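User: Sequence in, structure out. Go.
Assistant: Echoing your sequence, followed by the structure tokens.
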Amino acid sequence: MGFRERMARFMYGRYGNDQLSGCYLGIAAVCFIIYLFTSFFPVYLIGAGFVIYSIYRILSKNTAKMAAQNQKFLNWRYGLAVKKNRDRQRWEQRKIYRFYQCPSCRQKVRVPKGRGKIAITCPKCRTEFIKKS
């Protein structure tokens, strides 16, 4: 029996690698690089902790718990990507539109520039407020 078969048999029923474990390993690598330049030992310990926890996640047989943690991480990362994309779109539209917050529900409202004072109706709560566009 070769190495691959033995490894596959060992990993059967275990969780394996996922995006969260890869992120932990990346954080550990950054900690180790910082330790190389600063020789600050607590940073090394933090990096070692991330490596150990990542290996624990990879070898864990509690697949439901690890999958739930990974899904929570992926949802958080997706939220960051959506926010970054929304901010980039607003930056690109800054010359054409003004963005205001509804005073009651905090919904962002986009209005065209150069129209003077206008009454803006919030599409979410129907509150009307007056702003200069």
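User: And one key feature?
Assistant: Strands lie at 97-101, 108-112, 117-121, 128-132.
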